[in-house]
Amino acid sequence: LADVHNQSCRAFYALASQGHLDLLPKGSSRRTRLLHGALACLGVSGPGLSPEQLGALGALVCDMEPSTIPASHPRVLENLKLCAALSGAQRAALNALLLRGATGYGPPSSWDLRSLQRLGTLVLSLNQTLWGSVAEEVRKAFRRRILATYRGQDGSQRERSLALLGALASAPPPPRRRAKRSAEGCQVKPIDSSTLFDPFLTLYYDSNEQFDLCLTDEALRNNLALLLEQPLTMDFLGIVKRRLGKLYPEGIPEEQLKELGLLAQYYTAEEISTWMVTSSDTLLALFNPLFGTWKAPQARQLITRYLHLGGALTGPLLQTIGGRTLCNLDEEHISCITPEAIGCAGPLDISSCSQAKKNQLYSKAQQAFAGQAGTPAYYSLIQPYLGGAPAKDLKDLAKTGIAMDIDTFTALNPEELQKLSVMDVKNLLGINLPDLKLVENLPAVINWIRRQDQWELDHILGIGLQGGIVKPSPTGPATPATFTPSATIVPTTAVLATTALPTGTTINSHTALGSSSSTHVSPTASTITPTPPHAHSSLSSTGGSPAITSRFTTRPAPVPSSTSPCSVHPATTSMTTKS
């Protein structure tokens, strides 16, 4: 962002606002800097935003304060449609703005089905008060549209649809006279095998009482999966759960457990502890992602129950339950996972695991992928588990020419990170080394920097990290001697490191101050590389003027042609600089 200049900032932020901002965690320093840079570029000084500013900010508005919503031009609603989720305060501000009717949508009482469709994802944020202002016929038409598409939706879409149906069902109904309960029970369609294929079935039951009366035991016993395919509200699901308990007082049979679908997640951990989950097929069915995400306590209890009954966590099971659920298990249960299962599971997100569990899983992954060690594929296989890797393995990995991304680097074991040298880190990150500067304020990175030689941070990494150890010179001063070779001797360190010279060559030069220097290249080497001043430099005093003697390490290199600009005449076998 420091390279974004005033003359080009508007174009830059307009493009950035169209990106997938959720790749940057909400509240992260990088995402916050992006928003602040955009606001400064556009000259935003108060909470209100003009149409032009809203057009340029795009989804960046999602990170602004709730007061921005009512203070801005009504076009802000189009920006809010781009938000993955709104905070509670943002939703309250949105509902207040819509209730006023001062937007292009008009007052909610005038809305029709097209109005609700135009609102897009914002309908997920409407509260009961606002839904109560929408005409009942419009709400029914909207429910019918949701029900018509429900069966073809994936898990996340079904979650949104059920949330909408729940909000619509909780809206205040118009006043009506309560019908007397009939002695004959169900007054509309009975819920049985003949009616369960109707996608609009739930529209016929405008009360929990009617749904309960019309739900047959035959549907629960023989068509449970089909029943639960219906978009049932939480109240209706509660009725199904109660009726199943009455139908199976000794516990739900395992074959029926496989068909619980979304309803399974409404059981408590204590209730789950009595289930007979002995088959991996049952566990796979219960963790089907189509039915959404389990809460941690229930998921842990379900897997623990399965393991206590003799089950084993296979690769397909690990892949289905996911790394986050795996991290909630006890260490003793993780120890039972075989390396073969890890090898078949695919990449798992174990970022939420404790360090001890990361260490366990890394050890198993290392065994699983041992046959791939040394191949280009090894890093991609072992990468999800590197949070548990010891420093020795990380050092070995650094020698293979990988380019570790900064998120993987910052997820390494902090204690093992401290054992890595500057060169280890440079080789680990490869082309991603500049990203280390972006995370220099993370505690683990700060501690690592403090353990390193500042000269190495400056000259090996060269990305501006500060806070390393400044080693004293041999004579005792706190600041090391500054080593700056004359530009006429060797222009830059890069030249020293890469320029080949004939054997027996000496470099002579005279500076403007009359100082002279010479460098001899031994017969076995023709590339010279300077070492840090504090490593091989000594200070002496001759006639009141300090004399610095610096040594150079050498390594073999090909002899250049006679036209090389660095070709000079042979001379002595040492280099001394006096000034």
TrEMBL record:
Principal subcellular localisation of the protein: membrane
Name of the protein this chain belongs to: MSLNL protein
Key word Protein transport present: no
UniProt keyword list: Cell adhesion, Glycoprotein, Membrane, Signal
Composition skew (Polar residues), residue ranges: 539-553, 560-579
Compartment(s): Membrane
Keyword Glycoprotein annotated: yes
Family: Belongs to the mesothelin family.
Region (Disordered): 508-579
Xref: Pfam families: Mesothelin
Organism (species): Nothoprocta ornata
InterPro entries: Mesothelin, Stereocilin-rel
Gene that specifies this protein: Mslnl
Biased composition range(s): Low complexity: 515-538
Organism superkingdom: Eukaryota
